[in-house]
């Protein structure tokens, strides 16, 4: 969300019914942990340096479900799922040239990129004591092949074979640029999942994985994981047993202000949120932040609903919004203005920007008159304060969770600017679960979302545009684009190895996004990391970017395995 995603703001699948303490209560030490017999608060456990308290999304209640095929579940989005299950490889999002061997010790492509063979690591055990084998890897990819709802990456798998410790996965098209999706698939045990009939919707409360942690306590207000004493050690400590961090706690925290309060009083060690007021946090000894720019934030206009299914409306929206205000006010200056309508993260992917697309620049400020002109030229007229066409008003709501305080502010600012251009937009703040459900099923008119964090432009565009992702549990293509032409270019892009070859197929994709605006770029999103370095050492940083830093699945495991209590 699974698609590799650097999470900043989580989405959950359960109805929010409870709330946590206020920020002032947290600051006063009343931050409540799991209500289990003999349990102590996170603040108390934080004093015992072996317990890491981490958080990746704000939520008021948590559903007990460790299903690795449910990328919108609370456990997944809190950054815990990758501490239980593991992928074949991990990638350093802050330095895409780095690849880490996990359950695979290497790979090789077959002719034409239509197959890939992984060498599977030996000596690894599942958490229930049974041996992990190549058969488990083959079973996982066959499960994806047989269950499209679980195959949230849309991998075009045609066949899976094993030979000793090698697993070969074949595809209907070349997948050179899709290594990230393939290799970061969480692997599940055949002896457990072979009896699960609906893997995408199953509720898993007693997970069996190869990861460094086991489930321990659980309540809707928080849960803990304990170190796996029989862990294989990870690529930095093969055969080394349990990780240095002996317990990880995931509390439910209701808002970003509560997150800041918990960080300030040291009851939270590791977070990945947009938080205002971090100056006070970073001034305290042993506190640090790192915001690696890794993706593009966009508005997703629903392409199957009026009025956002109209190109003129999308063009007017892009002109009407004030990206500088979104950057400076909504995102507190932490995320810079997006500069090109292609959506590519610039300058990170500058070499992949087609020359013909460079001219599609985005205005940093609102162009109200130009937005109105676009609609007028398309035959729209203002009536009762709103543009309309054939009696249908250009009126819609932008939905995002009200607890995502930066997105809520972004949306309000955008709606205000659009109203000046007689585009009658409003912001509708939802609960996180309601928003999660709506975007997964396409039940919205417009919403803002972070883009896929990727090591290549292919991953970014595939997550935005691939029609295979249009499901009732979608984890990409939220806008609902169904373009055989774009799909064709995406498939061809999968065959490209050199930058020149990639540009051949990237150019028409970039042109399509820039001119048709299936997504409307706003700012370049950061991978937020707030860390208590006084309690734990080993966090990534700009000077040591071994990983992006945000505590999200699947890359959060890389960070946790590097940490050591002081």
Architecture overview:
With 566 residues, the chain is of the alpha+beta class. Among the domains are: 89-193, Dipeptide-binding Protein, Domain 1 (Dipeptide-binding Protein, domain 1); 293-525, Dipeptide-binding Protein, domain 3, CATH 3.10.105.10. The protein contains 17 helices and 21 strands. Strands 8-9-10-1-11-19-12-18-16-17 form a 10-stranded mixed beta sheet, with helices on both faces. Strands 4-5-7-6 form a 4-stranded antiparallel beta sheet, covered by helices on one side.
CATH class term of the domain at 293-525: Alpha Beta
Largest sheet: 10 strands, mixed
Q: Please mark out the parts with pLDDT under 50 across 5 or more consecutive residues, or reply none.
A: 1-48
What is the quaternary state of this protein? single chain
Rg to the nearest angstrom? 23 Å
Strand order of the largest sheet: 8-9-10-1-11-19-12-18-16-17
Shape: globular
Class by SSE composition: alpha+beta
CATH superfamily of the domain at 293-525: Dipeptide-binding Protein, Domain 3
Number of helices: 17
The percent range for strand residues is: 15-25%
How many runs of DSSP E, i.e. beta strands?
21
> How confident overall, as mean pLDDT?
88
CATH fold title of the domain at 293-525: Dipeptide-binding Protein, domain 3
- Ends distance: 33 Å
Q: CATH architecture of the domain at 293-525, please?
A: Roll
Please estimate the helix content: 25-40%
Provide a short characterization of the protein structure.
The protein is α+β, with helices and mostly antiparallel strands and 566 residues long. The chain has helices at residues 23-27, 42-47, 74-77, 134-146, 179-183, 190-193, 256-264, 278-283, 311-320, 323-330, 368-377, 405-420, 432-441, 457-465, 484-493, 499-516, 556-562; strands spanning 51-55, 89-91, 99-101, 104-109, 115-120, 157-163, 166-171, 213-219, 222-227, 247-251, 270-271, 287-301, 381-383, 386-389, 392-393, 395-401, 424-430, 446-449, 520-532, 536-537, 564-565. The strands form 5 sheets. A 10-stranded mixed beta sheet has the order 8-9-10-1-11-19-12-18-16-17, sandwiched between helices. It has a 4-stranded antiparallel beta sheet with strand order 4-5-7-6, covered by helices on one side. It has a 3-stranded antiparallel beta sheet with strand order 13-14-15, with no helix packed on it.
